[in-house]
Design a protein that fits this description.
heterodimer, A: alpha/beta, Rossmann fold, 2 domains, 4-stranded parallel beta sheet, 12 helices, 14% strand, globular, B: alpha/beta, 4-stranded mixed beta sheet, 10% strand, binds iron/sulfur cluster
Chain lengths: 254, 466
């Protein structure tokens, strides 16, 4: 069961979990997250010791290795402030996956506690802060990919609430929106044929509705789909929701 | 780096097989979803309740199994217990021999596939004819089911017509109605000649001892109408506590499995022929099959025993849609099979330990499961079990070094910066196999390790903007 019960947000200070993917590849997504949160009057702290949420090893089945990383994460994000992460998948790792692999460990309580104050970005903005309007403008047709790790959470709906609130954004639905993009962490490298076939299907559906930009709350899906499209020689423009929100504040697409 | 068997199988699958599996699973899934959400205000709540009922049932089998035995006996049925596939098969044979029977007609039952009953009976000089159209086609082709509800989802009608011609069931004709009519015609004679009718059970009520069978072809009724002896082969997890639990379970089963409000036939069998029940076989045997189920019950994956075999998780699964059922090399394919098959394999677990890896963990299976089984969690548990037991897993990157790095911030930060070297290397020379495997199929984004941290530091130094 997903543990999506949240502690209500009180103060206006959060800790940012930037994700290892943003740390390594997508610095602009993490930067956009900071700017979006600061626009909302939130003070953003960045615990320097952070690395990864532990999900690669958890999904790969090496729970002992994963727990090592989770323990480091728990230590790094000490305190009471909400932890905000621009990824549904890393958020779900904190409030669900980590709890599962710690169920027999003595420190499961600390892991659960971190899970209860970890928020996916859109969920935090809409349901944590109660913000449903977004100023600025962004003239574009947007296809939104609802990542699988947001199933059973409020993130997908929250993301659409925000996108639909931006003047100029036209959100288009595409076929089989509920289907997975085929990334799946280690699955993408150990099942390359199935993974890319799933990705190709997703790309077909998305291209059919001709969006200006393909947006998601998870860069892992976008890394896979964008990378696949580029390899095919037919690149598509992918962005994180945080980038769209920030660019809207600055007047539109960069 | 080698790849996983299921991935290889998918890559080699015939394009038209994939296309037909994809089309029919997608259509059924979409109809299922529309039906449930059009007809119920909160189908997800229904799935939760159904899950709780089944979870309660499997966790209290020690209460319900004796109760159901008592009820069945009171209803006039004979009850047998089979701990293994072998003993289940032998029990069936014993019942047949005691009657001097050699001919059986079979309705569709997954347990009989699991224990390979037809094969066993054949070896022992008995005939066991499949009467479900799909299973019949599987039987004449010496094939295996590739879907738990639609065994021949991998076949097209041209292939079926060719098989019928080969078996002397008429000149080539791939019109579905003709195919069905010919099978029916052939089977009518088999029903009349058989002495024993074998069915499974979708549910058995511990309250009344009623056996519930759902079918769409009416073949199970024929099996019971024409024969003198009914054998029901039942997995021990099929018990439900009360008759009224069937209301919710039947409502969900038809809709989830075949996108029907209710299957065409829903039979409640209260016992053999008696004064109060003038129709049906005069003898009724119920064989409860364990075959590894109590061992599954003892694991943390016991939730899988809630399964009511609707097939919805197969239909929605993107991996099943690409790979089809035979890729799973076991009786139960798809998400449910990826959990159940390796568990039922018991000491042969390592041979099927790759099945739980065949998932992107997208969670679509959990979202459609009428008994709300957290399949992704169970897949993860089995991945961890495989790791702990040291089963090799091709293509899965080792995580030990990574975990070390990810728990040491200084080393982590250094490697973020060091990774930039990759931008200057041709893909083939990147010294990380997982990244190479990635880049083989997808462009790798530019490495920008540490850039965000720099940006964060730079703006911390600036005075805050007003
Ligand atoms: S696991 Fe759930 S969805 Fe899959 S066949 Fe069983 S009951 Fe149906």
């Amino acid at each position: 069961m997903l543990n999506t019960e949240r502690k209500p947000v009180t103060g206006k200070r959060v800790q940012l979990m930037a994700t290892c993917l943003c740390d390594a590849f997508y610095d602009d997504v993490a930067a956009a997250t900071v700017e979006v949160l600061e626009h909302l009057g939130v003070e953003v702290a960045f615990p320097e010791a952070q690395t990864c949420c532990g999900q690669p090893a958890f999904n790969g089945g090496d729970w002992a290795a994963s727990r090592k990383v989770v323990r480091h994460t728990v230590k790094t994000f000490a305190g009471e402030e909400p932890v905000v992460v621009p990824s549904g998948s890393c958020a779900a790792m904190m409030f669900h996956g980590a709890v599962l692999e710690f169920e027999k460990e003595k420190d499961v309580g600390e892991v659960e506690a971190l899970g209860r104050r970890t928020w996916e970005l859109a969920d935090f903005i809409v349901n944590g802060l109660g913000v449903k309007a977004w100023p600025g403008r962004y003239d574009a047709t947007v296809a939104f990919h609802r990542s699988c790790h947001s199933r059973g959470t409020k993130s997908g709906e929250a993301s659409l609430t925000l996108l639909n609130a931006i003047a100029g954004v036209r959100v288009v639905e595409f076929g089989e929106g509920e289907q997975c993009c085929g990334f799946g962490g280690t699955f993408s490298v150990s099942f390359p044929n199935i993974s890319t076939a799933m990705g190709a299907l997703k790309l077909d559906h998305v291209r059919a509705v001709k969006p200006d930009v393909f947006v998601s709350g998870d860069m892992s899906c976008m890394m896979h789909l964008g990378g696949l499209a580029a390899k095919e020689g037919k690149p598509i423009k992918t962005l994180h929701l945080a980038q769209v929100l920030r660019d809207a504040l600055k007047g539109g697409p960069r | 780096m080698r790849f996983q068997q299921i991935d290889q199988f998918a890559a080699e699958l015939k394009a038209d097989t994939r296309a037909s599996v994809y089309q029919s699973t997608k259509t059924t899934h979409e109809k299922r979803t529309k039906l449930l959400f059009d007809q119920f205000t909160d189908p997800n709540r229904l799935r939760e309740i159904a899950g709780e009922i089944k979870q309660h049932a499997i966790e209290n089998l020690d209460t319900y199994l004796p109760r159901v035995e008592e009820k069945l006996k009171a209803n006039g049925a004979q009850v047998h217990w089979a701990a293994t596939a072998q003993s289940a098969c032998e029990t069936v044979l014993r019942i047949m021999r005691a009657r001097g029977a050699t001919k059986m007609v079979k309705a569709k039952t997954m347990v009989s596939e699991e224990i390979e009953l037809a094969h066993f009976l054949e070896k022992n000089g008995c005939e066991a004819v499949e009467t479900d159209l799909g299973e019949f086609i599987i039987q004449i082709d010496h094939d295996h089911p590739s879907h738990i509800v639609r065994p021949i989802i991998h076949k097209n009608r041209r292939e079926i017509a060719t098989s019928f011609e080969r078996e002397g069931l008429g000149a080539y004709n791939d019109d579905p109605e003709t195919i069905t009519r010919r099978a029916r015609h052939f089977l009518r004679h088999k029903y009349l000649a058989a002495d024993v009718g074998l069915t499974g059970a979708n549910f058995v009520s511990a309250e009344s001892g009623r056996i519930v069978l759902v079918t769409n072809e009416g073949n199970s009724r024929f099996c019971l109408a024409a024969t003198k002896c009914h054998i029901a082969l039942v997995g021990i997890e099929k018990i439900v506590p009360r008759d009224r639990d069937l209301g919710i379970l039947l409502n969900l089963l038809g809709r989830s499995g075949t996108a029907q409000d209710l299957t065409v036939y829903t039979e409640f069998i209260g016992g053999p022929k008696s004064a109060a029940q003038p129709d049906g076989p005069e003898e009724m045997h119920v064989i409860f099959v364990d075959n590894g189920r109590t061992d599954v019950l003892a694991t943390e994956c016991r939730d899988i025993l809630r399964c009511i075999r609707c097939g919805a998780c197969l239909n929605v699964c993107p991996v099943y849609r690409q790979a089809s059922g035979h890729a799973y090399r076991s009786v139960y394919p798809g998400p449910v099979g990826a959990v159940l098959s390796p568990l039922l394999a018991a000491e042969k677990f390592p041979a099927l330990a790759d099945l739980p890896k065949a998932s992107s963990l997208c969670g679509a299976c959990n979202e459609v499961c009428p008994v709300n089984i957290p399949i992704p969690d169970l897949l993860l548990r089995l991945r961890n079990k495989a790791k702990e037991e040291g089963v090799p897993s091709p293509g899965t990157p080792p995580m030990g070094a990574w975990a070390l790095l990810a728990s040491q911030p200084t080393a982590w930060k250094a490697s973020l910066v060091g990774g930039k070297l990759m931008n200057h290397l041709p893909t083939k020379m990147i010294p990380v196999p997982a990244l190479q495997a990635w880049a083989d199929k997808r462009e790798l984004p530019r490495w920008r390790g540490g850039e965000f941290r720099k940006w964060m530091k730079a703006r911390a130094k600036k005075p805050p903007s007003p």
